[in-house]
Each structure stands twice: as structure tokens, then as C-alpha cells.
Design brief:
Layout lengths: L4 H10 L9 H19 L30 H4 L6 E2 L2 E2 L7
Antiparallel strand pairs: 1-2
Length: about 100
């Protein structure tokens, strides 16, 4: 797949990227090379390969879900300017 200069300019506009005119051809070449690599990877037969979430067949070590800290809400809210029902009150930023 060949990426043209016009395609690079459209992509840059959609992504709101400012690119210099002298670099457009370089970007077009690089993007074409990437697309060619993707095409090569798509041609590989993967029908006998089982999908996996991780390359190593290991299980995740998990810790037990136990509360390890005490509730310090009142202590932490002592310096807050405004509190209501145990919640921090902040100025409205969106109307």
C-alpha cells in the first residue's frame, strides 16, 4: 500500500499535527513502509496458533483483598476549606 503526500496532509490535519512541507515525503515513505510491513504480517498463516493474553504461561500472583489502613477521613479533611457530608466541596468548573 502506498501512502501519498496528500494522504499525509489529510492525516496531519485530522490529528491536528503541524508538519513541515519538506518532511511530507519522508512521512509518506515511512507510513508506506509501515503499511507494507502490516501487509506482510497479514499474509502469515496463523490458523493453528491459539490466541493468548500473555506470552508466558504464568498465573498472576494476587494478594488477598483485605483492608490494611484505617479510615482517616476526618484527619485528612481538617485542612479542607469546604466539606459537606464527608465530601470535599470544590468550585464548579462546568456550567
Amino acid at each position: 500500500m502506498s501512502i501519498q503526500s496528500e494522504d499525509v496532509l489529510k492525516i496531519a490535519h485530522l490529528a491536528r499535527l503541524g508538519i513541515q512541507q519538506e518532511q511530507v515525503e519522508l512521512y509518506a515513505s515511512d507510513l508506506s513502509n509501515i503499511m507494507n510491513l502490516v501487509e506482510q504480517m497479514n499474509q502469515v498463516d496463523t490458523s493453528d496458533i491459539e490466541p493468548m493474553a500473555h506470552p508466558l504461561d504464568q498465573s498472576q500472583r494476587l494478594r488477598s483483598d483485605v483492608v490494611t489502613e484505617v479510615n482517616q477521613r476526618e484527619t485528612l479533611q481538617q485542612n479542607a476549606p469546604d466539606i459537606e457530608d464527608g465530601l470535599f466541596l470544590v468550585p464548579r468548573v462546568i456550567d
